[in-house]
Design goal:
Number of helices: 7
Order of helices and strands: HEHEEEEEEEHHHHHEE
Helix content: 25-40%
Shape: elongated
Radius of gyration: 21 Å
Number of strands: 10
Strand content: 15-25%
Distance between the termini: 33 Å
Strand order of the largest sheet: 1-6-7-5
Amino acid sequence: MPELPEAETIVRGLRPTLRGARIVRSEILHADVLRQEPERFRARVRSRTIRNVERRGKNVVLPLEDTSVILINLGMTGRLLPRRPADPSTSHPAVRFHLVEVPGPGSSGDEEPPGTTAGRGVLVYDDVRRFGAVEVLDAAEWRERSAALGPEPLAPDYDAERLGRDLGTSRSPVRTWLLDQRKVAGVGNIYANEALHRARVHPRRPARSLSPAEVEALHRALQRVLQEAIRARGTTLRDYRDASGEAGGFAPDLLAYGREGEPCGRCGTAIRRLVFGGRPAFLCSRCQPEET
DNA sequence: AGTGTATCCTGCAGGC
DNA sequence: TGCCTGCAGGATACAC
């Protein structure tokens, strides 16, 4: 996916247009992205107004006015693309939400005049690989789901002390630990590798083996790389697009991820790629020694 | 508890 | 040109 900075970019882009819009109808083109029966899904979102557009970890969250939420996990290739009703086409549509702006106070009816297109729009959940998920949760289900996710790494109270405490006694490689959404929410393979490179910590070091100084460095690196990536509107390697269909601009700023064989920006040593936990890790073996 | 493997699915790059 | 294999920002279930 889309990791935290990409989800944040999408959310910021969608907020102005989606806030206050009402879902009049939804179209399910690929039921396998839903986590519930299509009929039930449609019924639960129909006629609901989208109160806001939020993010939790890598997830896009649309709180509805009845306190339920639409939860969207973008998987590897999920996109949220606003379209005009006249041309709602995207390459791999899975779900389409047909929207209408809610009439303001003083406006008369609930029914929009037939034939009108003004104020209408379509939000398309598009997903080539369909690893993503779209679901409706009631308030209690969402509370439970959110509680199962780790803290937001950019929250003001997420300090190095908290990170150090959470790393705790885990013998897992620190890269694996960072990818676990229950430990910290929103970090994926790109930013885990980038943060570790910046912090000069080898990805395979056991989580609990980091010194206080390394925990401090990792905390700072993680916050910085996520913030810088948000500022650049995310990383596009291949598939990621924001709500306007634009690629992110952070890829040239990656120092390790995907740069096997290229010189480390800090010391010139060739970046190495190794695989563990089923995923590639990228590191500079000089800046990030495995043994300390 | 931690780790490797397979699974969902499609598209693309690289080798031959 | 075409066929085949492997790989991909994720999440989860399983066996050991």
